[in-house]
Design goal:
11 helices, two-stranded antiparallel ribbon, Membrane-bound Lytic Murein Transglycosylase D, Chain A, 2 domains, 6-stranded parallel beta sheet, Rossmann fold, 331 residues
């Protein structure tokens, strides 16, 4: 029995966890997609990340712990945790708490983890628990994708998850030439490229949906990156490909170890309610749903089936599929 808990990235406003605008931004984030793997069955939990101030981060760590403890059976359970940004900091903390319960983590998946939560006072951005929580010795595998420093993304903060209690934890690191958002599966759109530039501008003053300077110095220096929207999309796809390529055999082995070799595996069923899927297709430039249908079914006429299976990803216009979109191909 596999158990999954995921915590996504920080929202753009103080109350973003309760903002309807959060869902369309993160609905196809990497953590969100992982939470829909069929191999977790009904033992999966996905949490939105904290709001801009980060004060919910600790509570989200405990939410993941409570979910795992609810289903834990030491004879058959394997635990998988995933997080992006402050959500990644939360699940690092979750693994530490679970260690206290005697519960190991089979795989910890971290997308650009940052450990910053507002605790009040002047310049009150602080680490979640006062220090960089180490990745505990009870984590068997740790997949960690970080934004490359040359991307010049979110230069006001660094990464956590850099310390390990045990040399026996298998570490799979990757630096990606993408923005912080791109690493986590939420690459920036073209609208964040200012006139006269080709690069994404992450400046909080201009791009904050509230339209105001939030006033905390660590964020005021975030601005122009050295990443184009196309590079961000490519980096986001590379992040996903790297993680899933490593994760798939870990899941397979965990299922065998748990005596669950007949359950759905890997990304074979990523859509809730769908019992079968044929493949996961990454859209290439110039492709249409008709051409994709021809590739998999030998007929243009099945494009509608692909569209219906991916309606939440594509949106209301089937002609507006974009390069690097990830589409489930139904049987």
């Amino acid at each position: 029995m596999l158990i999954f808990a995921g915590v996504d990235g920080t929202g753009a406003t103080p109350l973003a966890r309760f903002d309807a605008g959060y869902t369309p931004v993160y609905q196809n984030s990497h953590v969100s997609k992982l939470s829909r793997y069929a191999c977790w069955a009904d033992k999966t939990q996905y949490d939105r990340g904290p709001g801009l101030l980060g004060i919910e981060t600790g509570g989200l760590a405990h939410s993941a712990v409570n979910h795992v403890v609810r289903y834990w059976d030491s004879s058959v359970s394997k635990v998988f945790l995933a997080g992006f940004s402050r959500g990644a900091a939360a699940v690092i903390e979750s693994a530490k708490i679970l260690k206290g319960y005697g519960i190991p983590v089979e795989c910890l998946i971290l997308f650009d983890p940052v450990d910053r939560s507002y605790v009040g006072g002047v310049g009150g951005w602080s680490l979640l628990s006062g220090s960089d929580t180490p990745i505990v010795s009870t984590v068997k595998h740790c997949i960690k994708v970080l934004r490359h420093p040359a991307s010049a993304s979110r230069e006001s903060f660094g990464n956590c998850g850099s310390r390990f209690e045990s040399p026996n934890t298998k570490i799979y690191p990757l630096l990606v030439p993408a923005t912080h958002g791109g690493v986590g599966g939420t690459p920036w759109p073209e609208s964040f490229v200012p006139p006269g530039s080709i690069y994404i501008d992450e400046g909080m003053v201009k791009n904050n949906p509230l339209g105001i300077d939030i006033g905390y110095e660590p964020h005021e220096i975030d601005g122009m990156t050295r990443v184009t929207p196309a590079q961000d999309r490519a980096g986001s796809a590379a992040s996903w490909s790297f993680v899933t390529g490593i994760l798939s055999p870990i899941i397979d082995q965990a299922m065998l170890d748990a005596g669950d070799a007949t359950a759905p595996r890997r990304s074979e069923n990523m859509v809730p309610g769908r019992t079968e899927a044929r493949a996961l297709h990454i859209v290439k430039p110039g492709e249409s749903l008709s051409l994709i249908a021809l590739k998999y079914y030998g007929s243009f006429n099945r494009w509608g089936d692909i569209y219906q299976a991916n309606l939440s990803t594509i949106g209301s216009n089937p002609n507006l599929i974009q390069p690097n979109m990830e589409l489930v191909i139904p049987v």
